[in-house]
Amino acid sequence: MPYGAYLAILGLFVAERGVELWLSRRNAAWALGQGGVESGRSHYGVMVALHALFLVSCAAEPVALGREFPGALGFACLGLALAAQGLRWWAIGTLGCRWSTRVIVMPNAEPVTGGPYRFLPHPNYVAVVVELAAVPLIFGGWATAATFTLVNAVLLAVRVRVEERALGPRWQAAFRARPRLLPRRP
Predict the structure, then answer these.
(1) In whole angstroms, how far apart are CA 61 and each of 17, 106, 130, 164, 177?
(2) Are 20 and 95 in contact (CB under 8 A)?
(3) Is 68's pLDDT higher than 60?
(4) Is the sign of the CA dihedral 117, 120, 124, 127 positive or negative?
(5) Dihedral angle of Cα 44, 181, 16, 1, to the nearest 10 degrees
(6) Pairwise CA distance, residues 183 & 181, whole Å
(7) Which residue, 23, 74, 154, 164, has fewest beta-carbon neighbours within 10 Å?
(8) What is the pTM assigned to this prediction?
(9) Strand partners, 104
(10) First-to-last CA distance in the chain?
(11) Distance CA 16, CA 133 (A)
(12) At 104, phi and psi to the nearest 5?
């Protein structure tokens, strides 16, 4: 795969992020208008910066360090990245207007336990973990994959705690038997 094709793939990921952000803003405005309560604003800017720098690093590392397309591994990572997108959009579709990149909880709303939430409580975060590892590896971005995966792990440790605390006891009871990030058979 030539570098230009990889840049085109990254461009599609950037466009997808734009759609996500538009949808998130729309849903957040709706949720807040319905009495939703936001938590975790202190880490949100860090998360946005991490994801923006990630895409820049994905494009820059292959050029700066002379990486080449790794053949079968690159195609496998492309497949993983696409699968992560599928999981992300399954989660977004399942949550509907309750989905946002921000932590906004609707008071008295029942926990969503359908779709990918049947298997685990944080499918979108699983998609992000896979994506941060796979997208840079499409074109040999080992340093980007390792760096952003580690930084994201720290950020997710904060984010998951904030989100689970905000969702409250009913959500915790609904997901008590489900693992946080790796699904088990239902």
Answers:
(1) 20, 41, 19, 35, 41
(2) no
(3) yes
(4) negative
(5) 120
(6) 6
(7) 154
(8) 0.90
(9) 38
(10) 39
(11) 18
(12) -125, 120
* DSSP annotation of 139: T
Span 100-108, average pLDDT: 93
What's the longest Cα–Cα distance across the chain? 53
Each residue's pLDDT tens digit, 12-26: 999 999 999 999 999
Query: Which residue shows structure tokens 């949550």?
Result: 95
Q: What angle do CA 113, 177, 163 make, to 5 degrees?
A: 60
Q: Which two tokens stand for residue 121?
A: 């409580």
Closest by Cα among 76, 93, 78, 100 to 24 = 100
**DSSP conformation class of 174:** H
- 21 φ, ψ (degrees, to nearest 5): -65, -40
CA atoms within 13 A on the CB side of 160: 19
Burial 61-87 (b: 16+ CB within 10 A, else e): bbeeeebebbeeebeebbebbeebbeb
Q: Which residue type sits at 105? A: V
